[in-house]
Amino acid sequence: MLTARADSKDRINGLEIGVEDYLAKPFEPRELLLRLGNILKRTSVSDPAQSSPRPDFVRFGPFLYGLSRGELRKNEEPIRLTEREREILTALAERAGEVVPREELAAQGTAANDRTVDVQMNRLRRKIERDPADPLYLQTVRGVGYRLVTDRT
């Protein structure tokens, strides 16, 4: 919780109602980042107490993709995605390491077909891959579909 209320009774009340952490304004931006990092570590996908059926973040190389918000970051810098790119990357991230058929990716978009998936995949590769012609993360599985290779796969 980030708030202007700094009294001890407000902090105690916030913690009693279940907030993970409590930070009063004014605050140091570095402190906020460190606290957020600690919260993310405590709620990582390897945590058996996590209630989410899927991980909320997928990491591949210098990239971090947040599934719930559809946000892609490279070394903390946001990368702009179109809605269609976001749909495709989410579908791949939800099944990281698995092959997602082209037809399935095409069916998720509006007015999409196999060719549109190829075009969108090429655009995504230009944003993500060092060498889009030889992708490390967004791999083609010939005749089947695409696969997102993450740090865990």
Q: Tags for this entry?
A:
single chain, 153 residues, alpha+beta, Arc Repressor Mutant, subunit A, 4-stranded antiparallel beta sheet, 3-stranded antiparallel beta sheet, elongated
Summarize the structure.
Helix content is 37%, strand content 20%. With 153 residues, it is α+β, with helices and mostly antiparallel strands. The strands form 3 sheets. A 4-stranded antiparallel sheet has the order 3-4-5-6, covered by helices on one side.
Written description of the protein model:
It contains five helices and nine strands. The chain has 153 residues and is an alpha+beta fold. The chain folds into two domains: 2-42, no CATH class; 57-148, Orthogonal Bundle (Arc Repressor Mutant, subunit A), CATH 1.10.10. The strands form three sheets. A four-stranded antiparallel β-sheet has the order 3-4-5-6, covered by helices on one side. A three-stranded antiparallel β-sheet has the order 7-9-8. The chain has a two-stranded parallel sheet with strand order 1-2. Strand 5 (71-74) and strand 6 (77-79) form a beta hairpin. It is elongated, with a radius of gyration of 19 Å.
